[in-house]
Design a protein that fits this description.
Chain B: Keywords: ATP-binding, Cytochrome c-type biogenesis, Membrane, Nucleotide-binding, Translocase, Transport. Chain B: One of its GO terms (biological process) is cytochrome complex assembly. Chain B: One of its GO terms (molecular function) is ATP binding. The complex is a heterotrimer of chains A (221), B (208) and C (253). Chain A is mainly α and 221 residues long. Chain A has one domain. Helix content of chain A is 78%, strand content 0%. In chain A, helix 1 crosses helix 6, helix 2 runs antiparallel to helix 3 and helix 2 packs across helix 6. The radius of gyration of chain A is 18 Å and the shape is elongated. Chain B has 208 residues and is α/β, with parallel strands linked by helices. Chain B has 5 helices and 8 strands. A 5-stranded parallel beta sheet of chain B has the order 5-6-7-3-8, with helices on both faces. A 3-stranded antiparallel beta sheet of chain B has the order 2-1-4, with helices on one face. In chain B, strand 6, helix 5 and strand 7 form a beta-alpha-beta unit. Chain C has 253 residues and is mainly alpha-helical. Chain C contains 7 helices and no strands. In chain C, helix 3 packs antiparallel against helix 4. The longest helix of chain C has 47 residues. At the A-C interface, helix 8, helix 9 and helix 10 of A face helix 5 and helix 6 of C.
Chain lengths: 221, 208, 253
């Protein structure tokens, strides 16, 4: 357990110390939410109806934006290579880094959700559902993102390609994430959607570290 | 500073080993054995495949042909390899001691205490400094200290004296000798002659 | 496993060794092409002259004879890629790399064709080119995955090292596709309680099924031919690249 915790602690410490990146992501998240009303008009009713989708799109885009940070620095200074000989398997290294990344990128977004809720005229029930849905769904986004980041880590200009790879795979997260907040005209399915979202999160969090570790271990070969 | 406890005896053998980078085979037909307490120096011009051979032994690249084995190693046990390569894996925004403590937690303990390890590489007084302020040579020393906090029987060293001054070179030689004294083995790619007892050193010339 | 490693005798090296593979599979191209042309001729004759127009959709039903085969291929080709990816990862089979790479643009093309013909068909039947129907939406997502894989191939400088990475991503995609399909279906029914036109209607008369089957075979054979040719091209491209590299090395030395 000690190496695992050490990786999380180091990543968090590095991010807090080298400052702005995670704050920039929060800023981006809030900005997407702010920009949307300019595009679709300030109609409070319309905004309230679209707010679940807007919040998720904002979270989706900001998590894709931060993807490249996950392994790039550690690959470039050789840390990733040395971690192969660490006293824990690469898949756990990836999992630790995914957890740290979630703490640094997803949690601040969720903390900033009240701001968007006010501006997008969400009611209290929707807001709580949105927070819950983001809490359950963002681990899947980060874990999927880890696969994209691992696959592109040796590509020098890989920053752009990882989001393009991961976006289609993350569509189910988006569907059930928004579905867990509001549903269509039929009977209320948000409970089902939340459960499905949790299932996807668990599956992805369990499997993607294996795939990402395989990609990292093949990266020098 | 000697590493007091001995290592379990471990022998590196290679038979007909060929190493490749991409599809290019750089070295082939290598046969060698490194007994406990011995070092193997890899010599050869740039591009001869020294780094590639080290990366192959490290397990990052699959051999193109042949095989190598660490006889006596427990395959289910903890990792027994240390790589000391071109990349320092030092985080500039962490202090020296934080950098070292991270590797201690990740690789396992049993060696020198991080402060003692910093003393051993001559960085003791700078422990609280951010690693970003170090010079290239000091960064190499910090990276080397990582090998001291976790005792592992096999050292794979890629140009261990690069960027180091004469004092630093002597220090590297001392550390390698201490490592061999404890029964470890070392494979080092280097241009410079390392002042280690000639009886314990074999040379392997690549790219001839 | 270099391109020029010594050719062996047994069947495995005959498949595995790129040069050998090209040598024996080149003979397959002509007969396969002829079979493809014959199947297309037969299928199109059935499709245009020997199958009835639908009582509701009229002659537009004939789009189906292109739409269904391409839709089938969009999934079949991904299957081929996934199997090749396993070959790359588990057996490090050099032809699996080549097969994976040659299949990706074909899969993307067939998927795009399926979407295009679907849109053409949708206009007269649904009154719109695009409907966010579950089937079409998941095909669209599949197209995005194909394009991502092609982009990933192109992003690597060294194609030999790219293969394992792309194989991992291809398999991740393969695991995800059922999840995507399920989620998109869930989403589509959620927003459209009234089901729109479905292809899998209760019955399909044999007069439609026969040309459909022939066309499915024709398109599958077309894929096989194109895939084989694509693989040959890729093997040659790699050989040229490796020869050039060797020449450059000799020049430098």
């Amino acid at each position: 357990m000690k190496p695992f915790a050490a990786i999380i602690a180091r990543d968090v410490r590095l991010a807090l110390r080298s400052g702005g990146d995670w704050l920039t992501l929060v800023l981006f998240f809030v900005m997407v939410g702010i920009v949307v009303p300019f595009a679709i008009g300030p109609d409070r009713e319309l905004l309230a109806r679209l707010s679940p989708g807007i919040v998720w799109i904002a979270a989706f885009l900001s998590s894709l934006l931060g993807l490249d940070r996950l392994f790039r620095a550690d690959h470039e200074d050789g840390t990733l290579l040395l971690l192969r000989a660490a006293d824990l398997p690469m898949s756990l290294v990836v999992l630790a880094k995914v957890i740290a990344h979630w703490l640094l990128t997803a949690l601040p977004l969720i903390a900033a959700t009240p701001l968007l809720a006010v501006m997008l005229a969400m009611d209290m029930a929707t807001f709580l559902k949105a927070v819950l849905s983001l809490l359950v769904g963002t681990p899947a986004l980060v874990a999927l993102g880890a696969v994209g980041a691992a696959v592109t880590v040796t590509i020098r200009r890989g920053g752009l390609i990882a989001p393009v790879l991961i976006l289609p795979l993350a569509i189910p997260v988006l569907i059930f994430g928004v579905g867990a907040i509001s549903t269509g005209p039929g009977p209320d399915q948000s409970g089902t959607a939340l459960l499905l979202l949790a299932a996807i999160s668990l599956i992805v969090a369990a499997l993607s570290p294996l795939a990402a570790a395989l990609a990292i271990n093949s990266s020098e070969d | 500073m000697t590493l007091r406890q001995g290592f379990p005896p471990l022998t590196l053998t290679a038979t007909g080993l060929a190493c490749r980078r991409g599809e290019r085979v750089l070295v082939e037909g290598l046969d060698f054995a490194v007994e406990p307490g011995r070092a193997l120096l890899l010599k050869g011009p740039n591009g001869a495949g020294k780094t590639t051979l080290l990366m192959t032994l490290y397990g990052a690249i699959r051999p193109a042909a042949g095989a190598y084995a660490f006889e006596g190693a427990d395959p289910d046990g903890p990792p027994f390899l240390h790589l000391f390569g071109h990349q320092s894996a030092v985080k500039p925004r962490l202090s020296l001691i934080e950098n070292l403590s991270f590797w201690l937690s990740v690789n396992g303990s049993g060696g020198l205490d991080p402060h003692a390890a910093l003393d051993a590489v001559g960085l003791g007084p700078l422990a609280r400094l951010d690693a970003g302020y170090l010079s290239a040579g000091q960064t190499r020393r910090l990276s080397l200290a990582r090998l001291l906090v976790t005792p592992r029987p096999v050292w794979l060293l890629d140009e261990p004296t690069a960027a180091l001054d004469t004092q630093g070179e002597a220090m590297v030689a001392r550390l390698i000798e201490a490592h061999l004294d404890a029964g470890g083995i070392a494979v080092a790619a280097t241009h410079l002659p390392l002042p280690i007892g000639a009886a314990r050193v074999a040379e392997l010339r690549l790219g001839s | 496993m270099s391109i020029e490693s010594a050719p062996g005798e047994n069947w495995w090296t005959r498949i595995a060794h790129p040069g050998q593979f090209v040598a024996w599979s080149r003979r397959l191209v002509l007969p396969l092409s002829i079979a493809t042309v014959l199947l297309f001729a037969l299928g199109l004759w059935f499709a245009f002259f020997n199958s009835p127009p639908d009582y509701q959709m009229g002659d537009t039903v004939r789009i189906m004879y292109v739409h269904v085969p391409t839709a089938w291929l969009s999934q079949f080709v991904y299957g081929v890629m996934a199997v090749s990816a396993i070959g790359t990862l588990v057996w490090r089979h050099p032809m699996a790399d080549v097969s994976m790479k040659a299949a990706a643009p074909l899969g993307a093309t067939f998927t795009a064709l399926a979407l295009y013909t679907g849109a053409l068909w949708g206009r007269p039947t649904w009154g719109t080119f695009w409907e966010w129907d579950g089937r079409m939406t998941s095909t669209l997502v599949l197209l995005l995955i194909y394009l991502g894989i092609i982009a990933l191939w192109r992003a690597f400088d060294d194609q030999l090292r790219a293969a394992r990475i792309v194989a991992i991503f291809t398999l991740v995609g393969a695991v995800n596709i059922p999840i995507i399909k399920f989620s998109v279906d869930w989403w589509a029914t959620l927003h459209q309680p009234a089901s729109v036109f479905r292809l899998d209607g209760p019955t399909m008369p044999p007069s439609i099924l026969t040309p459909l089957f022939i066309m499915v075979f024709a398109f599958t054979f077309l894929f096989l031919v194109l895939h084989l040719i694509g693989m040959h091209t890729e093997v040659r491209r790699r050989r040229v690249a490796s020869l050039e590299r060797r020449l450059a090395q000799k020049g430098a030395a």
